[in-house]
Amino acid sequence: MSVDLHDILSGLIAKDRLPALAISANGFAFDPRSGQSFTVNHTGIAAVELLLSSHSIEATVEELAREYDVPHDVVLGAVEVFIRQLARYLT
User: Structurally, how many domains does the chain consist of?
Assistant: First the structure.
């Protein structure tokens, strides 16, 4: 896992970008700072909730792999891509 990915996540949390994101139960996400909106699937909703509660990529990957019965390396790759996409939307 690349160090810069942890920096990206830490920046999104420290700058209140990720915590300020409003996500509805059906996956509609709204960034109140930029006015941008996008959608995420139920796995994306779970990932955001886990990232916010643990502030840990590894803990998020472990929980998603267990919950969805998907290999760790597959989940890790997906979470890495997801964090990078969030950073593009939220910065």
Answer: 1
